[in-house]
Design a protein that fits this description.
single chain, alpha+beta, Immunoglobulin-like, four-stranded antiparallel sheet, 3 helices, Secreted protein
Length: 196
């Protein structure tokens, strides 16, 4: 059991490093990485992954609840697993980008959006937006002072059947706004609930 815990922690940490996330987001990545593709039962992981711990190999993407599934071109699928409001005034959306097709796919350049400053920093999910229809506002992915989007970057392609963990950070809507629509260029939109 203890070996499982160490293996899970290492896997979650390497995922956080791969995403180049802020220190505060590392906890969110570890929290939604439960279950994974470990060989044994996830007894020492998050409680969400214990619900059906008898069949971990078949529940790789069901270890955490899926808030929305956004279908994209050529078999690309974005599964949103969490949308959490943080004290810093932003919302972090975590999920998995999956290639459901039978061939390797390049990510469409449109996912980066059309802002010159964001595009200059390479491939990203910088074109994502949250829409608060109640407040009639659209929120764009946050940028740092160098214009880099606060989202997963550097993914150029995904092999057939592969999944890649992704995140996006947005300014937080007012606290009374719980339900928003998430939109990504070339993908169907989906409605998600913000927690926290």
């Amino acid at each position: 059991m203890q070996g499982m815990s160490v293996r899970f922690t290492t896997r979650a940490r390497s995922g956080a490093v791969a995403l180049v996330v802020a220190a505060g987001l590392a906890l969110g990545v570890a929290g939604c990485g439960g279950g994974g593709d470990d060989d044994g039962k996830p007894e020492s992981t998050a409680s969400a992954s214990q619900e059906r711990g008898s069949e971990p190999s078949t529940q790789e993407n069901e270890a955490t609840e899926t808030l929305a599934e956004l279908r994209g071109p050529d078999g690309l699928l974005l599964q949103v697993t969490s949308a959490e409001r943080d004290d810093g005034g932003f919302v972090t959306v975590n999920g998995t980008l999956k290639n459901d097709s039978d061939k390797s796919l390049n990510l469409p350049a449109q996912l980066s959006g059309n802002e010159t400053e964001v595009i200059r920093n390479g491939r990203s999910l910088g074109g994502a937006t949250l829409v608060d229809s109640k407040g009639k506002k659209r929120y764009y992915v946050l940028r740092d002072t160098d214009g880099r989007p606060l989202t997963t970057t550097g993914i150029t392609g995904i092999k057939s059947g592969e999944s890649v963990p992704v995140f996006m950070q947005f300014p937080a809507p007012p606290t009374d706004t719980v339900e928003v629509s998430i939109q990504l260029p070339m993908f169907a939109s989906g409605t998600i609930q913000i927690s926290g």
